[in-house]
Specification:
Layout lengths: L4 E5 L3 E8 L3 H9 L1 H7 L7 E7 L6 E7 L5 E12 L3 E9 L7 E10 L2 E9 L3 H9 L2 H15 L1
Antiparallel strand pairs: 1-2, 2-8, 3-4, 4-5, 5-6, 6-7, 7-8
């Protein structure tokens, strides 16, 4: 059963919420530290992230490369815009499939929720067409596979 909820706002926004059993500091670190990202941000079973760059500062570069171990794969590039340790990350990202997608501005908040964390991720896409294409990928399934893996690390 998925714990992730995905909603749309207006024509350009996607809002994802999910509760984690770990405290905000741990969930924030899992979203920013390469050695942790490579353990959980993998999507469906069988994928790996051999390259993970996360320069944790405003203007710092992000690069994640995934492979399915069978010759398939893709990567993501981006930049951090704002960082509030343990509570908020704002970054821009683009998927390379192989051509880059339009920029996706992502704000992720980590709030205490009982003994865990409520994560709220708000994605701002350039237009309705880009958002529709992103939603058509079924991205929420890979996201939840990854988030369930993160929960098991806690």
């Amino acid at each position: 059963m998925s714990k992730l909820t995905l909603k749309t706002e207006g024509d350009r926004y996607i809002v994802v919420t999910r509760r984690f059993v770990a405290p905000p500091e741990a969930v924030y670190r899992a979203h920013t530290e390469p050695e942790l990202l490579q353990k959980w941000l993998l999507g469906p079973e069988g994928w790996a992230m051999p390259v993970c760059l996360s320069e944790l500062r405003p203007g710092g570069k992000i690069r994640y490369e995934w492979t399915d171990g069978k010759g398939g794969g893709f990567h993501l590039t981006g930049e951090y815009l704002e960082l509030e340790p343990f509570s908020r990350i704002v970054h821009v990202e683009r998927m390379h499939l192989p051509d880059p997608t339009p920029d996706n501005r992502v704000e992720t908040r980590f709030a205490p929720d009982g003994d865990g964390t409520l994560m709220t991720m708000r994605m701002a896409l350039p237009d309705a067409e880009t958002r529709a294409a992103m939603l058509a990928t079924g991205m929420e399934h890979g996201m939840e596979d990854s988030y369930a893996r993160l929960d098991r690390m806690s």
